[in-house]
């Protein structure tokens, strides 16, 4: 087990001091107070590169997570998954993670890059919007309550020849389902051929970059109706802005941030106007503040062994919130920007593989695996 030098060592407050060497069994606080009725710390786990690589658990993640539960199976430490990934509803991601990791995970414990899109419901609930990305981006937005949402696959299928190279694509998409350009025979939903798109959402990593860049350019530079005269750009929202992330392939893969750069470059080059957009996901401080509110609601009660579901978020207090991630530019940067009570832990199982700490965004602690991170946290917090 290898720990890196710690940078922001807090004073001893009801816990062991932060170590700059591998953990030992000694406890340095001269006086140990009784543990509070509710845990004074919480944990946020990144997923890709920390908990999973592809669909395979890594770094002892199943064992690490099991340590956060009582023997009865109830949660003793509040934790959630804070990931920029997505493409499926949080309810289904919770089921998927539960099966892969062997622990019971609630939908409320899953915060994906597109989760903050829920906050835009009042603005676009009954407006025509398009959503793109891998998985089921339209299903995600529909589950959030948006009434008139189309995937970019379906939206593009209603406009004949909008993708001039579609005939050369040998993979199966929804567009092939609509007759490969014979959209005039279809009855578009929501009057899509005549109604302007009021907002576009990049929910997850796009699959067909060429088609998506082309159609998004059409939407954004026409005021929301491809083929029409230029108009005011509809709002554009990205679930995250990762340039790279760790997937199953040994080296990093291009993320949503790379797609955003490509789209932005094309818009500026061709239409000579800057691309207006809003990005969510880590390292946005808003995401960390929102995660703190969710963790407060997940704090277990030591009186009855059940989760507190009707707690006033303002009434609870965390001494420390741990962000365990593999990407210094996303996980560590976000935790540092969010400030107290966030404490960043960097693992070497994903994007970061350095021997020492990251130079630009140093974490509070560097470990080899997520299991070592959890072991360190529980020792520091005196949790058996």
From TrEMBL:
Pfam families from the UniProt entry: Hydrolase_6, Hydrolase_like
Q: What's any GO biological process attached to this entry?
A: glycerophospholipid biosynthetic process
Which cellular component appears as one GO term in the record? Answer: mitochondrion
Top-rank taxon: Eukaryota
Coiled-coil intervals, chain numbering: none
InterPro entries to which the protein is assigned, alphabetical: CDP-alcohol_PTase-I (IPR050324), HAD-like_sf (IPR036412), HAD-SF_hydro_IIA (IPR006357), HAD-SF_hydro_IIA_CECR5 (IPR006353), HAD_sf (IPR023214)
User: SUPFAM superfamilies, from UniProt?
Assistant: HAD-like (SSF56784)
Which PANTHER family does UniProt cross-reference here? CDP-DIACYLGLYCEROL--GLYCEROL-3-PHOSPHATE 3-PHOSPHATIDYLTRANSFERASE-RELATED (PTHR14269), HYDROLASE FAMILY PROTEIN _ HAD-SUPERFAMILY PROTEIN (PTHR14269:SF49)
Which protein is depicted? Uncharacterized protein
